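Anyone? Bumping this.
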Amino acid sequence: MKNENVIEVENLTKAFGAFKAVNAISFEVKKGEIFGFLGANGAGKTTAIKMLIGISHPTSGKAKVVDFDVYTQPEAIKRNIGYMSQRFALYDDLTVQENINFFGGIYGLSRKAIRQKSKDSLVELGMHEISSKLVGSLPLGWKQKLSFSVALLHEPKIVFLDEPTGGVDPITRRQFWEMIYKAADQGTTIFVTTHYMDEAEYCDRVSIMVEGKIEALDTPKNLKQQFKVASMNEVFLKLARNIE
Amino acid sequence: MKRFIGFIRKEFYHIFRDRRSLFILFGMPIAQILLFGFAITNEINNVNIAILDHSKDTSTLEIINKISNSKYFSIKQIISREAEIESVFQKGKIKAVLNFEKDFGRNLIKKKSAQIQIITDATDPNTANSITNYINAILQNYLQEKNKSIQLDYQIIPQTRMVYNQELKSVFLFVPGVMTIILMLVSAMMTSISITREKELGTMEILLVSPLKPFQVIIGKVVPYIFLSIINAAVIVLLSIFIFKMPVEGSLILLGAESVLFIITSLALGILISTISDTQQSAMMISLMGLMLPVILLSGFIFPISSMPAPLQVISNIIPAKWFIIIIKGIMLKGVGLAFVWKETLILIGMTVFFIAVSVKKYKIRLD
Amino acid sequence: MGISLSNIDKSYKKQIAVRNITFDVNPGELFGLIGPDGAGKTTIFRILTTLLLPDNGKATVAGLDIIKDYKAIRNSVGYMPGRFSLYQDLTVEENLNFFATIFGTTIAENYDLIKDIYEQIAPFKDRRAGKLSGGMKQKLALSCALIHKPKVLFLDEPTTGVDPVSRKEFWEMLKRLQKRGITILVSTPYMDEAALCDRIALIQDGEILAIDMPQAVVNKFPKDIYNVKADNMYKLIQTLQRYEHTYSVFPFGEFVHYTDKRVIFKTAELQQHLESSGLNGITIAPTHADIEDAFMELAKK
């Protein structure tokens, strides 16, 4: 089941003038995989993600996301992926239910489907009793969990999560990862960035970007063996430090 | 003091780094003045006029010829009695009537002075004003030619009379009006935005937790905009004098001093706005809706206050711009001195003191 | 020169922000306030920096009362709010210069204190702050907070959103500053940073869960913890959550941290249960609790 590639990237490059923010990166992500996309601030992660989700045009190289080409079919990509970022997730001044209805609506879900899905996910989150509360009044961890459910609403093939757990308390952070495991178990591919190195260990495979290039890509276990260290944190520090 | 200067220097960095705002800040007054100026001093062309000639001598004939030969006027009707004037205007086609006094030519030579009455339809006050100016110019021109050939000092005394809107309330009012709007906008809106921006950025927290006293922060925010506003006021006055030949009858020094007073009033308002708004967006909305609209609608800039319903006339009294417009109108157009505008000046000073007092009281030394 | 809070309460309208906060920071100590977003960390910082008045309770900073002596406190503390409050349209150097001037000093006067930090961003001194990376912004903001040689330094989530490399460097800088006798109160949502503090207070939902040295907090963890691993982690977690003897189960890196309700626990029994549930590649090994285990255990109560 895990042989099918849902992301294929080859020599993907984005240059701003002479500066190559993303410098010829290549990798594949398989269906149902939890793929950790790590890197220091300014290493080019965000730029790379923007190209993959079809909102930024690459300078050169190839990339296919869910069988669609990032150059010619960005709209098809957007319909087939979910995206959740730490900065913008949900509207604080809308209620839980209104947010779900809105995001379900922009992905073209029927009213009936939205009703069914929102009921299911609210029950699963234990939030059905507060569906008429404003999202702004919820604790951050709840918002992030809700936001993830919303990103899954239209059953995307891939979900891109940009630092989904920053600042979230340890228990909620783990509950969040259980949701990620569950989605992956059901065949959704997870593409996630994080600054928590213990979360890198949760991933099936991890890539580490340094100054626009992917410097390492393997399972956490293999990476730790390769660098002869005990944790992903040390792998990360070794890689990023060496370059500087 | 060094701290304070450092603070002001930072403010100027902000202003000059934000090229777009800076461009609007200085471009807007010029654009507005030009817009209003050209929209109001519109060229007149082939305006229909009527002649009432009680004299019918060579002088009046020469003048009538001169007028009808100009491209500005075409003589549509010759009338013979004063009583006809009213009906001529009521038909609406004739915009002005020239009324030559009896024995015009003889008076011109004997008394060296003759009278002509220019009656205009001032339902459109701008056109009425232009017509008067054009006819005056033609008369002056005629006299110059005459005086050159005969070496005598003739004088034609034109009496202008405007019907329907005799005081011609909106003529040249646009300069005081635009000046008021610009000063209000730059001073109140820009200060309130620049203060709320620090709140949004979170830098206000650091400023509060620094030895800078709150009033230093506020004054520091205000000083750069005093400069900008003074420059703006000067640009507006110069433009109106040199491009639109706006007469500035009164003392330029008094005009400057009153402008500075109004700038300070507006700045105080800006500070007040910033104490009640937490975001740049709300500061901008309050400035626009709470200040600009009343200034445009209720200050007498566009709609004469005397023609407003009584409640609005009362409300207009609390709008600082109203008093400022009265003051600068007086200085610019009537050439009056402080003796005539001291009351309005005092009202403005009172308002300023009030705004500052409220701002100081409302200003928070904490975040609560 | 330390910090002291006793029974501090603060509410915003109806919402309680912090309740009954009491702790002391000794002079020269590096004290960590550890908790997730919304726990009330920022409120505590704002009360201590005199930006907010508490509803109840007393607090002093460097011996000065936060209400009576607020002016004196403002003169002697350094404060770095969350979100690196810098002027985005000013260059690195202009920002630093500005903060030096408003505190009545110059960069040259206190350069030795910030030298370490500032040298790392000096190559970019003519770049606007808005164009710096997160790590560089953080260093600049710290330089700005230090430029007037404060006795007490307040750092509110200085490492949030910053990558692990920059975070590590940042903590190394803090250690050096501490050696110069500056008392530092720092907050962070990253639990792993707790170990770098002399003492910590764990905080959640406006209340303090524990105050102690990091190791002591961990040592108080009441249960034996086991690292459990299987090929299918999702199924492992689900199986363990349904297991009748489970006390707690949390994913931790490549393992799951498992604790058992029973006093006497045999790993073989669990192994068998998991195998019979259809899991493969199972390993179970005892391990030590870490700060997150301790936090989650305390937060449960």
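Late reply, but here is one note on the structure posted above: The mean pLDDT of chain A is 87.
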